[in-house]
Amino acid sequence: MSDRDKPGAERDKPGAERDKPGGGEPASASADAPAKVLGREPLRPPLIKRFYTLAEVTADDGPPHRVLLDGRPVRTPKKQLLAMPSRDLAEAVAAEWAAQGVEINPASMPLTRMVNTTLDGVLGNEDALRDDIAAFAMSDLLCYRAEGPSDLVARQAEAWGPVIAWAEAALGCRFVLGAGLMPVAQPEPNQGKVLAALARYDAFRLTPLHVMTTLTGSALLALATAERALTVDAAWAAAHVDEDFQIGQWGEDEEAITRRARRYAEMSAAARLLALVG
User: Tens of pLDDT along 173-184?
Assistant: First the structure.
């Protein structure tokens, strides 16, 4: 359940599309793709060369706060100004651009990617993300418990029970727990109560919250992290109780280790974005 792929979890990577360095404003991260040769398509788009010297934030008090590359404002893949409500966030995004080497690697710019997603896809569509997060809460990972073995049952109860208790108190909900894989119907009022709690989350807060929800398979873990009832590490560990139990039984492979590390980095970046927005 932790691998459910909802829209927005790992999409809208910072594009690699930009204008030529000699004119116009730099777009947030893509270059013109080379001509494709049938059967010889590259596995991933080539990285573009760094075309700027200085990455900084506009000097005005703001908000919004914009990132500048050699004095020119950066734009998103959809040509929106890369503008943020928090100077702390803008400084962190500028630091990602400043840290690039000879080439610009979007994979090393998680904050930039999430800001791009917010500006290009979430603004004006906030209710869609709220609905999706609420839908996760109605079939949340934490409500599905193992029937056995007893060690796994105990681990789930220890890691998930306090989060359920927090969510019931914070949201005013009652969550029904079930054993096995059969669907568990949650009380219908829960959805409205979760949506009410999400009403105060604007686009810049909904994006990282949605990322954390899809990475963990749990709206409750994401909300507890956003509300600082859980640390990122505690939420991540809780989301992987089942997986860690299986690893203890059978071991793990290198591919799984690499994938999990990449997803943890995204989770940490999402929590950091929330903290930077304030």
Answer: 999 999 988 899
Domain boundaries in the chain? 1-107, 126-277
Task: Give the tens place of pLDDT for each residue, 211-268.
Answer: 999 999 999 999 999 999 999 999 999 999 999 999 999 998 999 999 999 999 999 9
Q: At what angle do helices 203-216 and 126-137 cross, to 10 degrees?
A: 30
Q: How far apart are CA 255 and CA 71, in angstroms?
A: 41
> Cα–Cα distances in Å, from 57 out to 82, 83, 91, 249, 277?
10, 10, 6, 50, 15
Query: Among 204, 213, 186, 187, which residue's Cα sits nearest to residue 131?
Result: 213
Homologous superfamily assigned to 126-277? ATP12 ATPase (1.10.3580.10)
CATH T-level assignment (fold) for domain 1-107: ATP12-like (3.30.2180)
- CA distance to 9, 62, 93, 115, 254, per residue, from 120 (Å): 14, 21, 16, 8, 35
